[in-house]
Design brief:
The protein has 468 residues and is an alpha+beta fold. The protein folds into four domains: 44 residues, no CATH class; 114 residues, Elongation Factor Tu (Ef-tu), domain 3, CATH 2.40.30; 54 residues, RNA polymerase II/Efflux pump adaptor protein, barrel-sandwich hybrid domain (OB fold (Dihydrolipoamide Acetyltransferase, E2P), Beta Barrel); 180 residues, Helix Hairpins, CATH 1.10.287. The chain has ten helices and 15 strands. One of its GO terms (biological process) is protein transport. It is found in: Cell inner membrane.
Length: 468
């Protein structure tokens, strides 16, 4: 019965099964074969999704664009060098001129001092004693010089108001020498006057005797004529002749005395002038010698006054006290021992940085730099700019103190003056002081991004496969 019942159903038309949609395959397979493949084969033969293909293409394009960008774009090459701020002028070291004792210390480290301010004072006993002694010597020499100048000028030498004992002594000596000088001249004048009177008297006697001689000659001539005519006696003639000869003898004696008096007169005048010249010559020679001694004493006095004034150690310029010697009041300091070290203010600042030896080849004068200060974070206060002014020609080896804070490798020094003492990016006033630690970023060039990936590879290839 069931068989019969099912038989008519077999005769009914059977609807065709719905077509099954097969995913696209990468290879052309007959549908009949693809229908009987396993799931793994079906997945293997299935074409990738469009999203996956687009993702792959996007990543590939992104990598290609990154390579192109890295090959074309460049970034700044920067050499970082640590250092500190220094002044363009060296630090000022205040030292004593000679060994002395400290009396006062008037400043402390970090204090700002003004030009001329007293930093410390030393004992002035010895220097003041030397100044007083030299001043007395100079005063004595100066008084002698002025006295001689007055003698040579013929002027009076007077003691100045509040004059010293030396001036009083020189004034007394001036009076004695002038009295001696005038007495000598008066003596010569009297002798000259006496000789002049003798000359006048002799010339008068000479004139009288000459007249008598002429008269006696006439008398003798008349008596000789009478004797020749035998009108007169021989005795009378001889008497007249004897009288004439006697007068001529007296005349010759008077003429001799007159000539001698004239010579004596001339000699006395010459002696008087010689005395004057000798007196002035001796005074002039003494004046020249004393002037030289006075000038020397004046220079010595200046040095001693400077030495005395330097017992007060003063600041030569506006500065900050950087360091004080480990000395107290009453301590003895040696000659030229540093007492106070000052850093001048109001002078341009520059950064002294240490450049590693491996970077020095790329740093030259004129390279721009950006300076960061450890005391002022650049994120808040900004940075300063500058240009490399000079680079040392040789490397420096760190000292023991420097080696404790940095590597012991040699380094080069570079000086970078600050273009502007104000920090860029900060409205707050900042104070830049010598000694502040800084970090200088020196711009040495440009470099493509891809070189950062290629250079290590090239360096590795250059040094690889070289082992023996």
């Amino acid at each position: 019965m069931n068989a019969r019942a099912e038989k008519p159903r077999e005769n009914l038309p059977v609807p065709a099964p719905a077509p099954v949609t097969q995913p696209a395959l990468r290879r052309s397979l007959p549908a009949a074969i693809a229908e009987f493949q396993s799931d793994a084969v079906e997945l293997e033969e299935r074409a990738p999704p469009r999203v996956a293909r687009m993702t792959l293409y996007g990543i590939t394009a992104l990598i290609a664009a990154a390579i192109v960008w890295a090959s074309v774009s460049s970034i700044d090459e920067v050499v970082v060098a640590p250092g500190k701020l220094i002044t363009t002028q060296p630090t000022i070291v205040v030292q004593p001129l000679e060994t002395s004792i400290i009396r006062t210390i008037n400043v402390t480290a970090g204090e700002i001092v003004q030009k001329g301010q007293v930093l410390a004072t030393l004992d002035a006993t010895f220097s003041q004693s030397d100044v007083d002694q030299q001043r007395a010597k100079f005063g004595a020499l100066d008084a002698q010089v002025k006295r001689l100048e007055a003698e040579l000028a013929g002027a009076d030498y007077t003691q100045t108001a509040g004059g010293s004992r030396d001036e009083l002594l020189q004034m007394q000596l001036f009076g004695q020498r002038r009295a001696y000088y005038m007495a000598q001249l008066q003596n010569y004048d009297q002798q000259i006057a006496a000789q002049a009177a003798t000359i006048t008297s002799s010339r008068n006697q000479e004139a009288v005797l000459a007249n008598r001689r002429d008269t006696l000659s006439q008398i003798e001539g008349a008596r000789e004529r009478l004797y020749n005519r035998e009108s007169g006696s021989l005795i009378t003639l001889l008497g007249s002749r004897d009288a004439r000869l006697d007068v001529e003898t007296s005349l010759s004696a008077v003429q001799g005395r007159a000539d001698e008096a004239e010579h004596t007169f001339a000699k006395l005048k010459a002696d008087r002038q010689a005395f004057i010249e000798d007196f002035r010559r001796a005074a002039m020679e003494q004046l020249v010698d004393l002037r030289s001694q006075r000038d020397t004493a004046a220079q010595e006095l200046k040095k001693m006054e400077l030495r005395r004034d330097m017992v007060a150690l003063t600041a030569p310029a506006d500065a900050v006290v950087l360091d004080l010697a480990a000395r107290s009041v009453g301590s003895v300091v040696r000659e030229a021992e540093p007492i106070v070290t000052l850093v001048p203010l109001n002078v341009p600042l520059e950064a002294e940085v240490s450049v590693n030896t491996r970077d020095i080849g790329r740093i030259t004068n004129g390279k721009e730099a950006r300076i960061k200060f450890d005391a002022y974070p650049f994120q808040k206060f900004g940075t300063a700019s500058g240009t490399v002014r000079t680079v040392s020609r040789d490397a420096f080896t760190p000292s023991q103190q420097e080696a404790a804070t940095q590597t012991a490798a040699p380094y080069f020094k570079a000086l970078i003056p600050l273009a502007d003492p104000r920090l860029k990016g900060s409205d707050e006033p900042v104070r830049l002081l010598p000694g502040m630690t800084v970090s200088a970023e020196i711009m040495v060039g440009h470099r493509t991004v891809i070189s950062y990936f290629l250079y290590p590879i090239l360096r590795g290839l250059d040094t690889a496969i070289r082992e023996p």
